[in-house]
Amino acid sequence: MRKVLEDLYHGEIHLHDREIDMDSELGKAMGRAERCEEKLAALLEGEAKDLLLRLIDADSEISSTLALENFVQGFRLGMRLAMEGLDEAEGVDRA
After folding, report:
1. Nearest 5°: phi and psi at 26?
2. Is 46 left (phi over 0), alpha (psi -120 to 50) or beta?
3. Residue 42: which region, alpha, beta or left (left: phi > 0; alpha: psi -120 to 50)?
4. CA distance 84 to 67
5. SS3 for 18?
6. Angstrom distance (rounded) from CA 64 to CA 71
7. Can you give the pLDDT at residue 18?
């Protein structure tokens, strides 16, 4: 555990740098979305194309924000579980 904490302190943990296997379900879905985006952008012009690009940017921002919130909530849950697991007095009759 100390190694993980040291790596975190030194900024050596980069979860966002992972590579995505394009043959995975996620990779395939990303490929489909990219192809649809390219086709739709090619069909649109002017304000409609700008609106599409703003929608894509907003969706990306929403996804990033949700990913961060899910990470924080998951980390907090993990810490609560760890604290609960370390509570040796739990279940002991203290009367």
Report:
1. -65, -45
2. left
3. alpha
4. 26
5. coil
6. 11
7. 75
